[in-house]
Amino acid sequence: MNNTRDYAWMITRIKTIDEIKSIFKAYLKYMSQFFEIAHYDSWCKGALKNLQRYSMADDRHIYILKESLVIIGFAMINKHLRFNTDGFAVAEFYIQKGYEKKGYGRKLAEHVFEKFPGNWEVAVTLKNSSALIFWEQVVSSYTDGKFIKKQKASFSGYGFVFNKGLKK
After folding, report:
1. Which helix (H) or strand (E) holds 53?
2. 5 pLDDT exceeds 60?
């Protein structure tokens, strides 16, 4: 069931991180529950420094999802792969609290998959059970079940791996 109102939301690619710094901090706070972090402030500073690379690198992309004028989510795409040898990875993905389970995440994920044909992977930590459920449902639906759920000793989680071919 799709609860998003088509006229009220839009997805755009942004070139600088300025627009998402505040929502990215909310994302870091959310993600911190899944990892043991000894020095939270240092961890956040490092994550924000990594975020800055998205403004400078041609192979990194940030898409934001807005409802009216409010940024409610983002997807960060890069080529840092854990399970494939080439292709694209969903590096970071977030929908703000209060907007989840309304179809926004699915719309954003499908939008970025459509932008880049080829191999894809989404890596999700085992501790984030809601993300595991979300990504398995989204990838399964998007690929008509044609994906592989992988594990590796070097990563404590799953990779959802699939190929998004060119449209004919």
Report:
1. helix 40-56
2. no
Structural fold of domain 9-164: Aminopeptidase (3.40.630)
Where along the chain do its domains lie?
9-164
pTM: 0.87
What is the C-alpha separation between 11 and 58, in angstroms, rounded? 19
Higher pLDDT, 137 or 35: 137
Amino acid in position 119: N
Please give the Cα distance from 106 to 142 (Å, whole number): 9
Residue pointed to by tokens 């999700």: 124
Joined tokens for residue 96: 């703000």
Taking the C-alpha atoms of residue 30 and residue 36, their distance in angstroms, rounded to an integer, is: 13
Structure token digits, residue 37: 């972090």
Calpha distance 50→44 (Å, rounded): 10
Q: How far apart are CA 81 and CA 84, in angstroms?
A: 6
Residue 166's pLDDT band (boundaries 50, 70, 90)? low
Predicted pLDDT of residue 168:
38
Tell me whether strands 118-125 and 88-95 are parallel, antiparallel or unpaired. parallel
The span from the CA of 161 to the CA of 147, in Å, is: 6
